[in-house]
Amino acid sequence: MKKSTTAVIAVSTFGLGLGTGAVGMLAAGGTETTSSSKSADMQGDWQKVEQIRQLIATNYLEDVTDKELLDGALTGMAEALDDPYSVYMDESDTAHFKDNLNSSFEGIGATLEQKGEAIVIVSPIKGSPAEKAGLKPGDIIVEVDGESMKGKKTDEAVKLIRGKKGTDVVLTIQRGSQSPMKITITRDTIPIETVYSETENVGGKKIGVLEVTQFSEPTAEEFETQLAKLEADGIDGLVIDVRGNPGGLLPAVADMIAPFIPKETPVFQIENNKGERQQQFGAASDKKPYKVVVLEDEGSASASEILAAGLKEGAGAEVVGVKSFGKGIVQNAYDLKDGSDLKLTTSKWLTPNGNWIHKKGVKPTVEVKQPDYYAVTKILPEDKPLKVGSYGKEVENAHLVLKALGFDPKGQDGYYGDTMKRAVEALQKDAKLDVTGAIDVETATEMETRLLKMLDEEKNDVQRKKALEVAAN
User: Fold this and answer.
1) Going by C-beta distance under 8 Å and a sequence separation of 6 or more, which residues neighbour residue 276?
2) Active-site option among 331, 347, 428, 463
3) Is 182 a catalytic residue?
4) CA nearest 237: which of 273, 206, 271, 274?
5) Structure pTM?
6) Beta bridge partners of 105
7) Which of 136, 395, 418, 467 is close enough to 320 for a disulfide, judged by CB 3.0 to 4.6 Å?
8) What gap in Å lies between CA 439 and CA 441, rounded to an integer?
9) Domain 195-330+351-371 belongs to what topology?
10) Measured distance between the N- and C-terminal CA atoms of the chain, rounded to whole angstroms
11) Collapsed DSSP state (helix, strand, coil) of residue 267
């Protein structure tokens, strides 16, 4: 067994983490004879695995290969840990994982997470088919092309969702208490461009914005280059946007934030299963001459949280948005000789002050929530028009969207009354649709299209606006 030289930390089970090496088995005490006896007993127990393999090969009704049995046994050992981040990956899974660290891959562009028996979207990649289709952090994937995802592992879901560019995949999505909805997404090549930069004028001050979508191999270099350009441009403040960023390579985030943090201050701390800690320290001799703000949301996970917590505690940065995802454990990658991999949780990471944010998240210093309509993508359940007398979650969502689009339906949020009918008629007239006062598929599609366009406009992004404001003050 050889430890991978790639150290990765990410929320999805397709991300790894920094560790301290392979964990050996050490006797707690006793004599050499007792230790040898225990070893012999264990060898006898492991012989049962071979015995079962032979029984299946000889007597099982259906055909099954030794490789299938071996992969099943290895997967079962990882599953016995009851840790969604510790997994055995066969050659195919390993190749998919490594694709995530390269410059591009083919699929829909979304990071997944296993929560209990559910497969949940942590975040869509910026500009990906998943984002364009309106998938949101927290969406539960109920089915993929009609196949139930209940109890599936993340890698199993990824295998079904990924595919050749130009082909379609149909996801059945559960969002909150809404009825399940089917979304057809056309797969494409997903480029992994991870850092985007721009400047904004806020009250006469020039604020730089660096949006980091994940932490892959080129990210630290991209970040350094883009930051240098912003600094040369004379910025008065900096916003680092890691919303929807699921994590990635640990060395990348460490290299990115070390120049912001004083030399004697930890960037983060790693604690192994013996309680031993390692620290990585900052590299800054002087404080940056501008204010730093981190922008996060519930889709900011793992390495993103190291960035947010590191800059918050180590550099005094403000954190704007809502509480982050909450993944404070790290994994080691072990390359096996046949091209497969074992990812194993070996440590936890702590903030500069020694706080463990696992399942808690990084709390913002300035809490700002997006408007409720940000959580709405689909309005209609399958083949069920909404009209006067309708009620429920779908009507409530339609109410939110109509109001956001400037056609205030008034009345009760979850009830389709006469005032809502008039609002729908006004929208249909404006869109040159048949004026029926009912929300059919065509009207719902128009509403959803307008909403997505509205969400793409930065002027409607209240979290971003607040972060810019904080950076300018």
Assistant:
1) none
2) 331
3) no
4) 206
5) 0.73
6) 190
7) 467
8) 7
9) 2-enoyl-CoA Hydratase; Chain A, domain 1 (3.90.226)
10) 53
11) strand
What is the dihedral sign for C-alpha 324, 325, 328, 330? negative
Residue 294 and residue 190: Cα distance in Å, rounded?
Answer: 26
Choose among 170, 187, 167, 12: nearest CA to 107. 187
Distance CA 430, CA 146 (A): 37
Active-site hit among 153, 312, 327, 466: 327
Q: Which CATH superfamily is domain 105-191 in?
A: PDZ domain (2.30.42.10)
Which structure tokens are listed for 356? 């463990």
Let me know if domain 372-458 sits in CATH 3.40.50.1450. no
Catalytic residue flag (residue 312): no
Task: Tell me how far CA of residue 210 lies from CA of 191, 260, 343, in angstroms.
Answer: 18, 14, 31
- Answer left, alpha or beta for residue 358, where phi above 0 means left and psi between -120 and 50 means alpha: beta
331 is catalytic: yes
Give residue limits of the domains in the chain. 105-191, 195-330+351-371, 372-458
Count CA atoms within 13 Å of residue 93 on its CB side: 21
Amino acid identity for residue 288 in this structure: K
Q: What are phi and psi of 215, to 5 degrees?
A: -115, 95
Question: Which has the closest alpha carbon to 348: 429, 427, 268, 293?
Answer: 268
R_g of the chain, CA atoms, integer Å: 25
The predicted-structure confidence for 109-141, as pLDDT tens digits, reads as follows 888 878 778 898 877 887 899 999 999 888 899
For residue range 344-355, what is the model confidence (pLDDT) as tens digits? 999 999 999 999
Q: Write out the DSSP string of 1-36.
A: -EE-S--EEESSTT------SPPPP---S--HHHHH
